[in-house]
Structure formats: structure tokens, C-alpha cells
């Protein structure tokens, strides 16, 4: 819907802008997502990762003419005579105000508000699936549920919407009021209250209370009474006539009693519901068996009843609920192509967010391909119009090649740009006509949804068919980054350590994310790693810790800033610099204050300063040192001496070179000695979600890397049988033994075999039996639920890297960086 600038000024309670007639229908909070400059209103938000005001000049150059800001920009960058500035005291509050007013224009629209610690997005998608065949629903895209995501979601409400479904997520006390005022839900659902995000809350009970605030004006609120604390807190806040309670545990006071019978053979569950007050009962079937799915089904039944519907009438829709996968995966493909797969939903909003994601991953000049299935048409009256919009969107994003797969999209082929589009009515036709070599070096988005069989395409383009993968959760990394960001002064820069290929997680995707997140520097160990980053389009400053290279030209020409730890190295770099004609090339001076590895010592400082002063080839950008025992409290005296010596030496350097930055803290140092943060800190292991302290101070970190494989074979053996090389695995009982394709060549250290460690299969720990082979090992699944094809976690959310390290007598750093490069890395964001 369009709003005039005049109307927006009115809503925000600010002066009439110079161009009151400008029309706006796109709200933008992240400059990288700009698509329609002329119709965009940009909000210069201040977030932990940056200040939106920094992007005003660039957006103006790219055609944006409407801005909500706290202060007008400096006219040194542009004169902005033809732009509207809405100057407000609080930009985020202005965004929320606009969303609130927009929502208020639809007072009779029923809106379901979903909150809870987990499962919000899945429940939202289930409800959308169940209801969208009969009514036009509008919902949050993906998991847009934050203080900023919610207003952007609400903005999508159009007059033809018949139902809204929005998520509300909070991470600290006091956030829910704003979300409630905007969403104004008529029906509320709470999925569950976990212990996650415990940070902002004193207790779980506090957290229940905060979540329940979403519902203060709801007509009906649906929740489960099987969680006694939630039941008790909800009963205090919500009158009985407004509550619709469900129970899977047979609670007689519940309004709706649910009984589930799992059918493992058919991977489905039969669900009986009995809602005696409503004189309703019936049976439905869902194509899932997990606990989370059964909980979801119970809440979905409760929500339908709250809306005055009979769930039995939707039984067919229940049986066809798709598997909700909100993740965008990034996979290395054949011939250096990169695949982005998105199986979330084949509709316009999710295509838009996938294209946005793709655009940010694109390096300059990189060829792009989008593979699209038939798009979801439920709730769309004009299919042709929808495909026209999609085509425009693809053109807007500068997509080089479009491949449509499906009968519907093929029928609309003529709508798409003719040059480089191809259409196939089925995946089989595509597979027959195309070969992987056509896709070399391209960045490829494979959009799909349940029933589109696009997995076959992904398989064709995937580089390696090895079934062991290292999954890297980029959201978790951003979360960890922001935890440290929040602990530091705003002016302190973060050097993100991505040496050893990002502690094994793979450096490019991480670097791209960290660059977007506002890290000050990346640091790698060797020049080759840095070169790879530059070649893939990373433009931010990069520090090279061990710059001993033969080819200094690459160092200079790619702006890779070396660490300098000795006079020999300094002389070599100056000499090479002179040969290549560089000037004022930034270098980083390493001091040895106690690690006794590399670095200048205190008695070198005078000579170092005078040598640096006597030339203009290199310029010292920073001076730093490294702590030897930051994580050993019993050696804090030693650490203090390091700090004292660093202060003494670095201040002499700084007197000589006033612009020089100083840094000494690594991850543990940041947590334990924040008073020594100086100008920058160097964040390593904790960025990857591995705590280095066991006192609870780092418990809110989330693991970034998870190593998974799959069961490729299962056999039953009787007691006494031996398994593997050297017959070292002797079975003491009749056993089920599963074989998994991971061995010591993948980084699963051989010392973990013979029962020394376990893997995680469907909720059970399964010991490794016998010796680990090069590419394979065997695990005992006698006590687990386990089938061929099941996923096996080696480490991740259930098995800690730190525990594996303990078993091996080493540290998590070694376990992470030992995952072999032949293991495929998959990066994803929710
Ligand atoms: C690896 C490294 C770090 C990061 O250490 P963590 O303990 O992983 O945070 C910091 N500084 C230097 C010089 C390093 O080599």
C-alpha cells in the first residue's frame, strides 16, 4: 500500500517535508536490500552492528529520496535538495509507530499472534498451510519476529487480507509491549517457554510473564497446560473465558485433550482431539512423528477451535503439511559454482528475501542463475500479474539466467526476459537437457518447496557426494559476535580471527558475514588464505599474522597488512616495498610481552621507533601483543605483568606514532579483562561458539559448527562377534551395529574409537565400536532408534567440541581445525 510523504510526516508527528506528494510503499532498514529506490523510505536505525546514518549518502546516490533520521546528514557528501528528511528523536520508534498505524487501518482483521521460545515459525507456516486454501492470509516472512522484523512484516498487510499471522520474539524484559501494540493480535498462541535467551530474564517465570504480555487484549489465548509453570503464570494473567488450553498429558482441566498415536512404519501420527466444552472431537493425521510436531499439531488444533472452526474439516490439509525448512543453505557446487538452496516456500516474499541473500553473497561480476519452480498461487487471483512481478524482481536484481521448472511457470514463459531464460515442464526434462558444466562459476539460487523435487537439481550440482558435512550456522556466529560487541565499548574495533580457514569452518562465507556485521579487521595466518578472501570479493582490512612469503607483490597489491615481529622481517618488507614502489603500507607491530613466540621485546623499542621513523615505505597501523595464559586464573599475576609491559611499551610506540591502534585481548581476555580492551580486541574461538571458561560467563554462546554424517548400513550381530580392524570391537551382547561414512581422514581422530567416544543418533548416545577406519567407522545403535539414512551428529548441539577435546587430551581449537577439507561445508541462515 502506498503512503504519501505528507501522511507519513503526519503519522510521525514531524514537519511537512519538502515533497509531500512523494509516494512510498517500501520500508528499508538495511541499505544492502535496496531494490526500488524511488518508492523506498529508509530508516537510519542504530543497531549493535552499525549506524544507519552512515548509509544515507550512498542510498541518496542510488536514488532513495525519503529518509527517517535522527539528524540531517552532512551536506558535504551531497546537497540533498530533492530529498525528504523526517527527523525524529528515535528512528526505531518511528518505524514501529508507522507499523502500528498501518495495522490500525484494519481494525476488523483477525490476527493470530504467536510467541514462544521455539517453533513459532513452524506453527505459523502450518496455520498458513491449513487456512490459506480458504482465506487470504498475510504472515511474517521467515522468522521476522524482532523489534524491527515485526514492523516490516505488518507493513505487508493489504486490504484484501482476511487473516494475519505474525510472530513475536523477544530476548529481554520490556520488549513485548511494543510488539503487542503493533501486532494487536485478536488470537494469541504461546508455543513454549524454553531456557534459551535466558540472558535478559531473571527467571523462567519472568520470561513467561513477559511473553504473556502479548495477549493482554486478545479475545482468545491458546496454550498448553502440560508445562506447569506456564500454565500457572498464564492462569494468573488470562481470565478462564479467554483461555483455550490444550493438554497432551491427559490433564482433565484442559479445554482440549489430545491423544497421539505414532505410526513409525508410515512416519505419521494419528491425533485424536476432544474439546468437550465446544462439543467437538475428531481425528486427524499428520505426516510427522517428532515431539515438536505433535506439540505443533495440538496448538494448531487449539487455534482453529479458537477461530470457531472444526479441525476435522481440514483433515486433508493436515495430512499434506509440508516439512518447513526456513533455512537458506549455501553449498559448494561443481566447477566452482555456489549453490544457495531455499526450500522454504515458493512465493513472492520468500523469493524476495532469498534474492536479497543471494545479492549479498554475490561478488562483483559474478554470473547468477535462479532456478524457479511453479510458484504458490493460493490466495492469488491474478497469476499472470504475479509472474510479471516475479519477472520484474529478477530483472531488478540483475539475474543473468532464469530457469523455470514446472507446467505453470512454463505457461508464463513469455513474461520473462527472453535472452537467457529456459523453461522445462518437469525436473526430469531439466535433468535430461542440462549438464553441470553449464553452471560453472555461477552463483545459483535453487528455489523450491515441498513436492518440487528440486533436491535432484541440487544433487546434480553439488560438488561432492560424500555424505559427511560440516554445517556452519551463520546466525549463531552473528549472535556470538553481537554478544561480544555488546560487552565492548562502541569505539572498540573487533578483529575477527578467521585463521586456519575460520577455525575449520571455512573462511569466505564467514568473512562475508563478518564484513556485513561490521568487524574492523579479519586476521588470517598466511597470505594464501588472505588471497582467497580477496579473490572472492572481501574488501575489508585483512591482517596476515605470518607474512613470511616469497611473493611480496601479492601482499602489497591486495592490501594484505602484515604482522611484523622482528627486525629481519621489517627490513625485508621495507626492501620489498621499495622495490615495488609502495608508500605508507600499513603494518602491525607484534610485541612479545610473555608468550615468547614472536615479537619485539622491550629493549628493541627505541631502535624500532627510529627505524620506522626513518622511512616512509611502511607505516605502523597497530601495535599488539598476545596473552599466554588468559584462561588460567591461577596465573593472573603473569597476565598482569603482560598487561603492564604492554602498556609501557605500546605507549612509547603511541607517543611516537599517535594514530596507532593498540590491542592485546583474545576471546578469554575480553571476558576476563575488559578493562584492557584498548582500541581493538581479537576475537577467535568464542566467535565459533566454544566457551573457554566454565564459570558460566560465556554460556550464552551458540555453537557455529556441527559435524554430521548419515547411517549407510545397519546389521544385527550376536554377542561375541568382533567388529573392524584388529577385531578390537568385541560385542558383549547381541547388538545392532551401524556403519557411518566418516573416518580419521575426515578428522574423526582414531583415538576416539574403541568406545572412547560416542555419536548422537535420534536422541541417543551411541558408542563407537572398534577401531575407526580411514573413511568409515561403526557405532553401536542397539539402544537407539535408528534406520539407514538417519542423521548422525559427531559434534554440534548435543555433543560438545570441548568434551571431544577432553577425551583426546587436547583443546577445542585442534578438534575444530582438524575437520578435513574434503568434508563439505554447508552454510546456512534462518
Ligand atoms: C588465534 C589468535 C587469537 C584468538 O585467540 P582465541 O583464543 O581463539 O580468541 C588472538 N590473537 C592472536 C595473535 C592469535 O593468533
What does this entry show, briefly?
Belongs to the alanine racemase family. By secondary structure, the protein is an alpha/beta fold. The chain has 26 helices and 42 strands.
Question: If you had to describe this structure to a student in words, what would you say it looks like?
Answer:
This protein is of the alpha/beta class. It folds into five domains: 91 residues, Udp-n-acetylmuramoylalanyl-d-glutamate--2,6- Diaminopimelate Ligase, Chain: A, domain 1 (3-Layer(aba) Sandwich), CATH 3.40.1390.10; 214 residues, Mur-like, catalytic domain (UDP-N-acetylmuramoyl-L-alanine:D-glutamate ligase, 3-Layer(aba) Sandwich); 133 residues, Mur ligase, C-terminal domain (Protein-Tyrosine Phosphatase, Chain A, Alpha-Beta Complex), CATH 3.90.190.20; 217 residues, TIM Barrel; 125 residues, Beta Barrel (Lyase, Ornithine Decarboxylase, Chain A, domain 1), CATH 2.40.37. 30% of the residues lie in helices and 23% in strands. The strands form seven sheets. It has a 15-stranded mixed sheet with strand order 22-21-20-23-19-18-42-24-33-41-38-39-40-37-34, sandwiched between helices. Strands 10-11-9-12-13-14-15-16-17 form a nine-stranded mixed sheet, with helices on both faces. Strand 28, helix 21 and strand 29 form a beta-alpha-beta unit. The longest helix has 21 residues. The chain is globular and about 90 Å long. Pyridoxal-5'-phosphate binds next to helix 24 and strand 32. Keywords: Isomerase, Pyridoxal phosphate.
